[in-house]
């Protein structure tokens, strides 16, 4: 699907409009639900419910990522027609990183179960931090350590060359600012993975369920960005909802280890789905100010 997306449907660089983005959101969600149905019937209702709960958590956190993408693209003045390509390769990199984090996290839990308390405490801390509304000034792409380190050792042109990540300046090859944008997007995803992976592992310890639900959620992230970037102000209660979910999963992990009390997947799914639904409904009933969209 990724190959078809970039190689067939988006071979020509263009500005992704709301209608196209919304269509792709529906396509990715339908594929995810189809895969969820397969998990449910092939692996049982418990696995199916765990998959759906993990998908909802990751999808909610992915929506929160859109705010950062808006700031990054705006800061670097990346042309709207090339943003899709950056996000495509960003998601390919994210898929690899998520695989490493998920399997490393599961191995840690298998060999040192007490790490669940640390994961739970981290999720509670992250939830509290997430409840504090973000401002544009809180995200500083120019302070990205990886990007600054790359620019120290590799020449970067002062201009964009279409959708190319690398180009030639005289006789030498140089990176373009678009590659720096990609580096910032990739390293930002590492930070988000540190939040989302423990949350998913708080729902399931099965690598297959954790990885596939995670990947299906981030596959639709590009479409979500183009669909929501102009209306992010409408979801002002989403951060609070996600904060409640992360704190709930963190507490669930801690009491599961300390008191050996297991919270059923039905309760977890109800809390996660209900909280997200309430956050969205409250946001629509009490809309905030519209945030700035993509740089044009």
Topology of helices and strands:
Blueprint: H1 2-9, H2 18-43, H3 45-75, H4 80-111, H5 115-130, H6 145-153, E1 166-169, E2 172-175, H7 177-201, H8 207-219, H9 221-228, H10 238-258, H11 265-285
Antiparallel strand pairs: 1-2
Textual characterization of the structure:
The chain has one domain. Helices cover 71% and strands 3% of the residues. The protein has eleven helices and two strands, in the order ααααααββααααα. It has a two-stranded antiparallel ribbon with strand order 1-2. A hairpin with a 2-residue loop joins strand 1 and strand 2. Helix 4 packs parallel to helix 7, helix 5 packs antiparallel against helix 10 and helix 10 runs antiparallel to helix 11. The chain is globular, with a radius of gyration of 20 Å. The C terminus is likely disordered.
Question: Whole-number radius of gyration?
Answer: 20 Å
Question: Strand order within the widest sheet?
Answer: 1-2
The portion of residues forming beta strands comes to under 5%
Shape category: globular
Helix amount, in percent? Answer: over 70%
> Regions with pLDDT < 50 over 5+ consecutive residues?
290-296
- Figure out the total of helices: 11
Structural class: mainly alpha
Order of helices and strands: HHHHHHEEHHHHH
Rounded average pLDDT: 80
How would a textbook summarize the main sheet?
2 strands, antiparallel
